[in-house]
Every structure is written in structure tokens, then in C-alpha cells.
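Bench log, entry 3. Co-assembly request; chain sequences pasted below exactly as received.
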Amino acid sequence: MPTSDEALVPDEEIIADVLAGNRESFRLLVSKYSDALYRHALGMTGSPDVAEDILQVSFIKAFQHLGEVRGRFDAWVFRILANGCKDWLKNIRRTHVSYEEDDQPSHYATPEEDLDRGQLRDDLDQALGVLPATLREAFVMKHVEGRSYEEMAELLNTTVGALKMRVHRAREALQRLLGDRYH
Amino acid sequence: MLHDTPNSRHEPDARLDLPTKTVAPSAPRLADDAEETFPGTPTPEMIHRWLDGEAVSAQELATPDAEKHVTFWASVNAETDRRRAMKTPTHVAAYIMSNLSAPVVLDD
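Structure output for the full assembly:
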């Protein structure tokens, strides 16, 4: 975590310092933004190891291209990481590509079992893994990262209305996948 | 205010060369189609409004139908709140800093 003084240093100044040869200053950018980016990667991949890999590669790539930043650094590095997450999701092997009601794993259909926080954690991960990347991304940004729709729209370069629709669809799907068990 | 777009010339190619670790979901994946609708009982609109932080009266949330949705989403929210407090593992920053190569500086 950056100290309170370090957190007040504008990103533009940090970037200028790094580009002037003070590589160590890049650590401030890593400290400022790694937690939020890590949570996004973890929410998107469901794997701490993969989330770490994507976070590391994203920051290293950001460093290599630091001279190309023209707008907000946090939004720029977010897009690098978000694209990395989507690429990873595209590349993992999928045994199914479509959703059928009967395809639901029996794991989700055990209404007699007690509500258990650890079980909910696992079930939520599995249910998020079933969602299309765009819905998963919207749900994670809204519910896990706690971002406003306006902030999401800015980061994803889309409209608030489109994002509300995605979040609502993600909720519907999650409730369908988990609801029998947790209602 | 953003000046870059996801495809702007200022953004590096976001294809990341990552190891092929997989955590393939055991559940079937929904088709990647944002227009897809889902079977089952729809979540009431006022529950969406409540989850979006909009004003919803206690009376609306106290109906028997609403209560089961509220209970469900309170459980999910407790889990997502926990995730929101997660921190990057401490070794990650050190790994990043030890693997930096020279930045590319563009001439204006």
C-alpha cells in the first residue's frame, strides 16, 4: 500500500519520473492499483494463480509501454488487464458452449443442504464460471469491485444502460443457478 | 475523462502471453451472447433497483416473494463484500518490479 503522501502524488508525475529513469517509482503505481486490478482478475478467472499471472503481465506490459499513456493511467492499465482476462477466458478449454436447463450440475440442485458461507463461496465461483465473459465482467465490477455504473461505462467504453442490462442478466442467471440452493 | 479508447493507438496490444493454467469450470458455460435470456423466475425489478442502490421502500421488500430474493442476495452480497476486501499477495509487487525491462519511449 502506498503511504498517504505517496497516494497523493499524481500519476502523471510518477510516470514522468519513471520515464526519466527512476524505475523504482513504478512501484507506486503498482501499490496504488494492484488490489483493485487483482480483484478484477480474480473475479474474472476464479483462480488466484491465474489472477496473479495476469496482474503481473499487465503491469510489466504497462511499464514497457508507459510512454504511450495519454489519458488516465488507471483506466489504461485496467483495459490491459481486462483484455488479458477475456483472452484467458477465451482460451481455456470448454466442454460446453451453450446453456440448457438440463445441463445444470446437480451440485446446484440440493435445496436440503444448509446455507454455508464456504459452500456459497465455491458455488458462486462455479456459477460465475458459467456466465459469458461480458456478464461476468459486469457483475464482478458492480458487486465485487463496488463500482458505479458511470465508472464502469467509462472503463469499458460503453453506456450505463448497456451495463445495467448486463448486470441484471448476470443476476438473473446467478439466481437461476444458485437460487434453488440458497432460497 | 478518458482520452484513450480500448483500441486507440496508445494502448499496447493487450494479448498477454500467459501460462496455460486452467481452472475449467465444471459447469457448462452459457453461450457468449448478451442477448440470451435465462429460464426460471425472473428477479423482480424492485430487487434490481434495491441492488443498484436505488430507493426501495421497506414495505416493497417485505412481501413474501421479495423476502426470498432479499435473503438470497444478502448472502451473495456478504460473499462479494468479503471479496472486495481482498488484497494482492505481497510477493506480486516484488515479482513485477524484478521483471521490468526498459520502457518504450515514443518520440512526439
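The first helix of chain A runs from residue 4 to 7. Chain A is about 70% helix and 0% strand.
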